[in-house]
């Protein structure tokens, strides 16, 4: 999904008025897929962070019509989103220095990106279960390799002999 978005947005002419801290001078040599795999491998991210990444990107694009997710912005955007998502949603997370090392940016740069990112999403780092479900279902529908498992069958409550259960 992100690859398609960046490929589409790379066709949009770049203007000085739309440059952000997330823009790099040139597209990184590492592919987006390899970059995501690197982050997942070394940061040991919880799967929810991958889904929340998409929600955060949508929030930025909805709030800032001039922000363009392209090959010049996506890598910095991804590492920053994962850094913020893990802090907001996970019981344990890494330091910014570690995320920066994994993401190939300096700690100072990640600190600045994190503040800009949080401002872009209006500090709205939480996602309710309904929103997560909507994004999950849409993600599944867009990828033919994914299949949705049927829900487990409902089990009827069991009654143990000798115990009183209210009607």
From TrEMBL:
The keyword Protease does not apply. GO terms for biological process: cell division. GO terms for molecular function: cyclin-dependent protein serine/threonine kinase regulator activity; protein kinase binding. Keywords: Cyclin. It holds the Pfam family Cyclin. Gene3D superfamilies: Cyclin-like. GO terms for cellular component: cyclin-dependent protein kinase holoenzyme complex; nucleus. Residues 148-167 are annotated as: Disordered. Belongs to the cyclin family. This is Cyclin.
């Amino acid at each position: 999904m992100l690859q398609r978005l960046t490929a589409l947005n790379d066709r949009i002419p770049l203007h000085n008025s739309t440059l952000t801290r997330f823009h790099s001078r040139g597209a990184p040599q590492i592919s987006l897929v390899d970059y995501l795999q690197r982050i997942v491998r070394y940061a040991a991210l919880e799967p929810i962070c991958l889904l929340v990444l998409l929600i955060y990107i949508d929030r930025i694009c909805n709030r800032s019509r001039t922000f363009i997710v392209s090959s010049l912005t996506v890598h910095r955007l991804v590492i920053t989103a994962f850094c913020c998502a893990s802090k907001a949603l996970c019981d344990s997370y890494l330091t910014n220095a570690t995320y920066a090392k994994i993401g190939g940016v300096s700690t100072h740069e990640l600190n600045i990106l994190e503040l800009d990112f949080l401002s872009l999403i209006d500090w709205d780092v939480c996602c309710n279960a309904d929103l997560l479900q909507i994004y999950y279902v849409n993600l599944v529908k867009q990828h033919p390799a994914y299949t949705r498992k049927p829900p487990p069958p409902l089990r009827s409550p069991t009654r143990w002999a000798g115990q009183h259960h209210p009607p």
